Amino acid sequence: MGLLDDKVVLVNGGSQGVGAGIVRAAVREGATVAFTGRRAEVGDKLAVETGAHFLRADLADPAQARDSVTRTVAAHGRLDCLVNAAGLTSRGSLLDTTPELFDAHVAINLRAPFFAMQAAVADMVARKSPGTVVNIITTSAHGGQPYLAPYVAAKAGLVGLTRNAAHAHRHDRVRINGLNIGWTDTEGEDATQRAFHGAGDDWRERAAEAQPMGKLGQVDEIADFVVFLLSDRSGVVTGSVIDWDQIVIGGLD
Question: Which branch of life, at top level (predicted)?
Fold first, then answer.
C-alpha cells in the first residue's frame, strides 16, 4: 500500500527540481499525478518516465494557474492533493529591483499559488471531500539574503497565505501546510549559482563541505516529506510552516 493510493495529485512547477522529485515520489506512492511546466520537451520527458500527466502552463498567468486545477479535474474526475512547487529565484536587492522584477516574483511565487489553491479548494469544498495542499516556500522567508529582496517578499506572503487558508478551511477538512526548504541541490540552483555567483563545476562540493550535515538539501528527501504531508499519515496537522533545513533559524554562535 502506498501513502497516496487512490489520490489525484497536481504538482504545479513539477517538470524539474523539487517539483519533479515530488512527481516521482507521488507516483511511487500510488497516486494519479498531473504536473505543470512551461517547457514541453522537459515535461514530456518526465511524463514518459513516470506515467504522470503533463500539463503545459505558464503559472505567471493566473488564469492558467486556475486552469491547471480545472484541467486535472476534467482529466481525472477530482483533485485530492495540490503541491505548489514553482519558484522564481532571480536576484534583486531592495536598491536595484525593478517593478518588472518585483511583479515577476509576485506572479510566480505568490499569485500563482493563490489562484491554484482557490480552484483546488473550491473543488474539494464543492465535493464535500477532504483534501491537502503543500506549498513549497523557503527558509529565506524569515529574512533572507540581501540579493533576494523580491523573492523574500513574495515567499513571506506565501507563508501568511498558507496559514490564512488553512484556518479558513479547517472545518472543510482541507489541510494546508508549507515547507520552508533551505539550500537544495537542483538543476535550477546549479544554473543560478553559475549565472549570478560565478560558480564553477565544483560549487556543489565546496558548498557541501561548509554545511553542518556535509551536503546540500536533497530533492528526494524533500519529496518524501511532502508526500507524507499530503497523505493521511500526517494526521490532523494544518497551518504548519515547517523549516526543513540544517540551519537553525534564530540560532547564534
Answer: Bacteria
